[in-house]
Amino acid sequence: MVVFPELDRPSFEGARRIGYARVSTKSQKLDMQMDALNAVKCDHIFSDHGISGAKAKRPGLDEALAEVKAGDVFVVFKLCRLGRSVLHLADLLTRFERENIHFCSISEGINTTTSGGKLVYHLFSALAEFHRDLIRENTLAGLEAARARGVKLGPKFKLDEYDILEAHRAIMQDGFTTEEMARRYGVSGLTVTRAFERLGVGAA
């Protein structure tokens, strides 16, 4: 018998539980996730059916993120149902903390409505920073190795690694748009998007 955790409702008036479920292929079913989300009494449930986690555009997730407000609890069955990458997941949880949104992952027993569960936010915030540092170091090391082999590098890009990763962080964690970051750095939105692809951080 599966036992689902009790979720404490935050004292914030009008707080809700916003559930999200996803399966990667059309042949898979959402039943298990939906049962779990209903068991913890989610007020609204959004879903993506037949959409892989790697895809940047997930309409159900976009709707869920647009719906969730400060004081609400965002609920998933498993962590892998939410983030399309470790960095994306870490950025989302960092954003939730900043926007005073609670988070629960049923399978992993993560529940930030409890005092112990709040530590999760600090861990994922550190993970996001670590991941970006690693991307930056690997990129610089790759450039140095290319120069050492005598590879002639192309023209300098308009955005360097520090600018790209900071723009990505601001979009994912602080809620800025790609266009706003493009204006900040004096480039086009397409330049920002291509810079994300070049560093392998994906579309924001």
Please count the helical segments. 7
- Please write the CATH class name of the largest domain: Alpha Beta
SSE ordering: EHEHEHEEHHHH
Radius of gyration: 19 Å
Question: Which structural class fits the helix and strand makeup?
Answer: alpha/beta
What is the CA–CA distance across the termini? 39 Å
CATH topology of the largest domain: Rossmann fold
**Overall number of domains:** 2
Low-confidence stretches: 8-13
Taking the sheet with the most strands, its summary is: 5 strands, mixed
Number of strands: 5
Fourth CATH level, the homologous superfamily of the largest domain = Resolvase, N-terminal catalytic domain
Give the averaged pLDDT, no decimals. 82
Proportion in helices: 40-55%
Kindly estimate the percentage of residues that lie in beta strands according to DSSP: 5-15%
Question: From the coordinates shown, what is the CATH architecture of the largest domain?
Answer: 3-Layer(aba) Sandwich
What global shape is seen? Answer: elongated
Give a verbal description of the structure:
- With about 200 residues, the chain is of the alpha/beta class.
- It folds into two domains: about 15-120, Rossmann fold (3-Layer(aba) Sandwich), CATH 3.40.50.1390; about 125-200, no CATH class.
- About 45% of the residues lie in helices and about 10% in strands.
- The protein is built from seven helices and five strands.
- The chain has helices at about 30-40, 60-65, 85-100, 120-150, 160-175, 180-185, 190-200, and strands at about 15-25, 45-50, 75, 100-105, 110.
- A five-stranded mixed beta sheet has the order 2-1-3-4-5, sandwiched between helices.
- β4 (about 100-105) and β5 (about 110) form a beta hairpin.
- α5 runs antiparallel to α6 and α5 packs across α7 (about 190-200).
- The longest helix is centred in the middle third of the chain and has 30 residues, at about 120-150.
- It is elongated, with a radius of gyration of 19 Å.
- The termini are far apart.
- Residues about 10-15 have low confidence and may be disordered.
